[in-house]
Amino acid sequence: MTLPRPHRTDLLIALAGLACGLLLWSFGLYTTGDRVFDQRWAPLIPLAVMSAMEAVRRTLPLTALNVGTVALVADQFTNGNLVTVLMFTDVVYAAVVYGTPASARRLPYTTALITIGVTVGFLVWWQNAIALLIGVITGMISFLPALTGAVVRNHRNAADAARLRAEQTALLAEMDRAQAVVAERARMARELHDMVANHLSAIAIHSTAALSLDKPATTRQALTVIRENSVAGLAEMRRLIGLLRDSSGDTEPAAAPTLAGVDALVAQARANGGPSGLAFALVDARESATALPAPVELAAYRIVQESLTNALKHAAPGKVRVSLAREPAALTVEVTSPRGERPGPTAPGSGAGLVGMRERVALLGGVFEAGPATDDEGSERWRVRAELPVAASDEERV
Length: 398
Prior knowledge:
Blueprint (H helix, E strand, L loop, with lengths): L7 H19 L17 H12 L5 H15 L6 H17 L2 H26 L3 H83 L3 H29 L17 H12 L4 E7 L9 H21 L3 E9 L3 E9 L13 H12 L3 E8 L5 E10 L2 H6 L1
Parallel strand pairs: 1-2
Antiparallel strand pairs: 2-3, 3-5, 4-5
């Protein structure tokens, strides 16, 4: 197994400690005298071992503590070196700061118990005040560094946790911003499609008719419809631009369309679809004209508008029926149109209209259905049906 390389700072600390210890030793400055090993060279061995442990205080903190403890005990049997004791305090501190979380929790309590045990033991043995002094010194070289390390580690952990929370908050804020941008782009796409698509579809159908039929009257009628839809489409585009402007702009946004404008939608579709053999009927079965929440009215209006646009582009000759019904908890919108081969010019479709309608209903928590169906007479029809929830409390707030 490859041992981790010592940290550069730890190597500098180890070399500095060794140099200071050699300086004290060269001047004959010892901590005590008359010990078991009183040879002049004896204190150098614990000093060298403690210096080596300082070099690995960060990479092998527990090993440095265990070996350093043995070196400190061995130093007590020699004349002693003050630098050896000082380096041991740093090893204890490093063991708490850089060691495992479990050891960091245990070491302050362990050193406190050792300090208390040493003090009580020497009091019982010597029965004088010197025992208290030894207890204080033991606490200063063991418990105090461990306590300091625990405080520093707790502050570091708190700083790391705060930084992590800040990063997570920033990440969540960025995700919210991205989702808001996507939602706004989807809303703008729905509005743009619903407001302009029906006008452009009518323009495409009638321009094709004008080009394919060499009849002045038909061409003039088609050009009239094209101009009307061009002007209406331009007005809708200006309204959308007004909605996108801020309050400092010179264009005020117009009010959102409501179900009161469904009659105009059907009338416009009747004018655009008449040459293609389409008839349009509106059946409003609502018992009262009580205003609905603005999001519900806007969604219902756009669903009718897009369904009529799809009928103009794809429906076979016949009757297109628009039905509105008010139930206690929901507004039901249903549009049916004939299915089959369609003579004359048609306009291409992209499927974005159905996606937009489905999204509008989903945002309100309603139910949306679109697909082929069979009426009471057995005729094949295309049906779009949406149930838009309406809470009683919402009506009261309108």
